[in-house]
Amino acid sequence: MSDRQAKIRELAAAALAEDRVDYFIGWKQGINPSEAIPAFVRSADEVDQLIWNPLSHHNLTTFLKRKMPDPPNARIGVCVKGCDSRTLVALLQEELVDKERIYVVGVPCDGVIDRRRVEKEFADEVVDISFSGDVVTATTRCGDSKEFAKGDMTFDHCNTCRYPNPVYADDMAADPVPEPEDRTPMWGSIEEFEALSPAEKDAKLADAFETCIRCFACIHACPVCVCWDQCVNRCRRPALVGQRVDTKENLMFQMVHMFHVAGRCPSCGACDRACPVEIPLYLLHRKMNKELYDMLGFEPGVSLEEKPAFQTFKLDDPFGEH
Amino acid sequence: MRIGVFVCHCGTNIAGTVDSRGIAARAAELKDVVHTEDLIYTCSEPGQSAIQKAIIEKGLTRVVVAACSPHMHEVTFRRTVEGAGLNPYLFEMANIREHCSWIHDDYGLATEKAYEILKMSVAKVRQLEALVPNEVPVNKDVLVIGGGVAGIQTALDLADAGLKVTIVERETTIGGTMARLDKTFPTIDCSACILTPRMVDAAQHENIEIMAYCEVDKVQGYVGNFTVDIRKKAAMVDWVKCIGCEICVQKCPAKAPDVFNVGLAETKAIYIPFPQAVPKRAAIQVEHCRWFQQGKCKVCERVCPADAIDFEQQDEYVQKEFGAIVMATGLDVFPWENHYHEYGSGNIPDVISGLQYERMLNASGPTSGHVVRPSTQGIKGQEPEEPKTVVFIQCVGSRDESVGRPYCSSVCCMYTAKQAILTKSHVGMDTEVYVFYIDIRATGKGYEEFVKRAQTEFNVKYVRGRVSKLYEDVIDGSRKVIVRGVDTLLGKQVEVAADLVVLASGITSAEGAIPLAQKLNISYDEWGFFKESHPKLRPVETNTAGVFLAGACQSPKDIPTAVAQASGTAAKVLGLLSRDKLKTSPQIAIVEQNRCVSCWKCVEVCPFSAPQKQEQRDGTFKSHIIETVCQGCGICVATCPVNCITLKGFTTDAIIDQIEELLLA
Amino acid sequence: MAQATDTTQAAGTTPPDAGDEVKVVGIVCNWCSYAGADGAGTARLKQEFEMRLLRVPCTGRIDPLFAIKAFEKGADGVLISGCHPGDCHYSEGNYYARRKFELLDRMLPFLGVEPDRFKYTWVSASEGARWQKVVNEFVGKVKALGPREGRAL
């Protein structure tokens, strides 16, 4: 792991020193050592702040979407995990990111930690998480400490990951990790919800969406949503989403996002992780991908040559009445 | 905003089931509605005047008419409101006839539903904005697809009026079905004598270009500005050099089935369908040619005096621009062999189709006009036998649900009468001629008289009833086709030992009609006949502006009807192209550029390439929809994630307001 | 107005109890299904009462969010109908729509909406009888399910 961290620093330093990029986006440790946060590194002598560990969950490609940030023509270096690389490919498919202006460091990934799951094991605030092999040690402010098997604390999308190595990168931070031979996706996490009755599903969704505060965190964290401040969710006209904050309009708000990223969202889970009220957004987006896979054998963001599923069609698409 | 609501009674068509007066009165309570009125016939002159009067006197700024389908009278009422000075697009129709009064019986429920439909329309009209049509230049050239009698007639009418016309014909000659007919009813004049001079007229007309052996490959564009890709099929003969001398046909050693003569004779691998072909040019049927199949021969190349044979010829594509397109693709004969097993499925030699018999009657046909029994043909040392008893069976592949053809082919009664008369005159008055029929449809000018002549003057025996079975048997040492049927007038079984049976096989759409319709985006019915825009009011137009219909491609037709329609079509095309500029629908998509996020999904999905990347003053690019190219489908609107594309007349807000108006009630 | 009220009562029917009433929204394309519904009307083909139609140029114009919006606002069923594949007046609109509505059809049950409450289909301008069948079958199924009472959608 530290090998990858060292390699990321080395590649970032070289790109910055050789003036191939204006800045480099990676992960660094947060104020709270139990967190990793995005890092923007602007000179080669700052690369030591870059880290790589199982807390590096942020999908950094969200910073690339649409207009690359200031200056407008900036050349940007960015670190991607397997899942992040698929959102990058989705952006590249639509030329929403200029391939010539990015430098992509791919990081083979063994899965990242769901910090929320760890926190739920304690009554107190977790202030430190450290790793030793496959053992995760979490410590709280009061000094309580527990050890967990890493596999128990990784995200669902890591547990079912079929693309642990980036599908697109200019340089790699390590040799690829072993990949599953069978890339058929697994849908374990959503089958439980699928089995519920319509009324039970409605109740669960209502309970979840009742708490939505429309903070737009899900939308801003989403790497493939490109509307920024023009989001139709913010609009009075057209009045697709009512301005009244209630459960149904909250769900509508999320439906707008979901259907707008359909066919481009590889369910990286960034929206779910960003949600401050823990609405199960990953569940919804994952389901959408399950159905897309079932409909078209389509997985978003896997191949640069493919078009997003809803911007194309086949005359003989295998569904619907004929 | 001042909305006027007008509710139609349509006599009792609406008011019989819907309380038109009641819902008009109730509509007064809707927001912004300042005038309501019920009218007996809103589309009539008094009805339209009432609308105009109310617009002027009450200062209406929006109008809703609850009446029939907008497909029926939207255009009418747009004109009405425009006449009173209101923008025609500030008008909306509520369909309370086709979608309500005609499909429900319960007065109370239908009235309630009609009011809801009306409310939805009021909700929509509030969202509408004044729109002004665009003008686009018009290309005045016309494409006629199909060179049968209908296509030729339309082309000649248009060319005489000064327009340039291109006829695309997939066979090597124009002429179509009529060229294969012997005589025409009810005058018994020679089909070729009428048609071939018209074919020559078309070929020699300075305004007509005939592209024979060509097919339409792709159609793009819109009314006034179509771009058509045409495939020139490889004839393996250079038609610029070919002089139509037929020496190659005479010398060609490879035989091929004679399609023109419906399989009654053989032709050669290199062929010219008939002597009066226009253009008279030879083509090689590759699948029957010895050179292409076995790699040796090339006799045609050696004998051709014009050096026209070109074994290397490939299909060529040409692109042409047109302002209007006329579909005149004609018909095919119903393939009865595949459906009528009780008639022998084509395996009884003396059972033939009407078109085959037509060729047999023709002096330049395979038997030189002699009526013979096919079973006695081609036997060495024996002259073919003339039939003594001939039976005609009508409605084979027409008016028959069991073969999926419920419609009347409209020509068979008459051509059967004609063929029955010709049988008598070719073979002799003593020939026994029977016609089995369901009933006789002789509705054209002079038609009934013609059938009467067959029955009285020519003593053709008409038997009302269906034939249940045809089979071969030997009676008194001679081979016969036994016709077993029923005479429903006498109520008894009938059996006739016939020498020849002619099936009045019905009409079906031309092969390839459906794929062609799909290329042009026009509607068709389940049998492949093209659908007119309105059966009575717009019978030669299609729902795709600029595409017109002529002849049997629309529905089965006889020659007089096809020709009359073809001239009607020409008049409609002339009307369209008499203008230098065309008004295009203003109900198109427009981009609100300050909200565009340049994701280009609109560019990706538009079937017409209407959205373009337009450079802005700050050097960025935003989507811009070219007004004259946009067709108003709204695919981009439903695709744009920020909803910054608006489809005028069908805005997202209008749709949502309609949904809410209905559901919040 | 008074006369109108009398007529309604004279017919001896009143709208059904609002509690049992279902509301069905049909969004149809102008060229095929709307015209097909016109054809059904012209042929006086009797249909279930609850369908309310909204006309758009093309199924390609229909955002799946319209259907979700309709459910959100209390629709008990939503029907989408357009031209058969290959017959779109604009060549391609229904092909895009087919993908979108197939996904919606699969997502709605996950959002707590019974499968029989949504349908997308194709009815051509010449298929009046098919339109009648589609409406009667679809509305029949929605009526069997009764009104919806979703909290989330």
Largest sheet of chain C, if any? 4 strands, parallel
Given the helix and strand composition of chain C, which structural class is it? alpha/beta
Give the strand content of chain C.
Answer: 15-25%
Given the structure, what is the number of helices of chain C?
A: 5
How far is the first residue's CA from the last residue's CA of chain B? 22 Å
Q: From the alpha-carbon coordinates, what is the Rg of chain C to the nearest angstrom?
A: 17 Å
How are the strands of the largest sheet of chain B arranged? 10-7-6-18-29
Helix fraction of chain B? 25-40%
Question: Can you tell me about this structure?
Answer:
Chain A has 322 residues and is an alpha/beta fold. Helices cover 31% and strands 14% of the residues of chain A. Chain A has three domains: 2-111 and 160-172, no CATH class; 113-153; 188-311, no CATH class. Chain A contains eleven helices and nine strands. The termini of chain A are far apart. Chain B has five domains: 3-125, Rossmann fold (3-Layer(aba) Sandwich); 142-231 and 317-330 and 510-577, FAD/NAD(P)-binding domain, CATH 3.50.50.60; 247-303, no CATH class; 334-507, 3-Layer(bba) Sandwich (FAD/NAD(P)-binding domain), CATH 3.50.50.60; 589-647, Alpha-Beta Plaits, CATH 3.30.70.20. In chain B, the strands form twelve sheets. In chain B, strands 10-7-6-18-29 form a five-stranded parallel sheet. The model of chain C is unreliable at 1-19 (pLDDT under 50). In chain C, helix 2 links the parallel strand 1 and strand 2. Chain C is globular, with a radius of gyration of 17 Å.
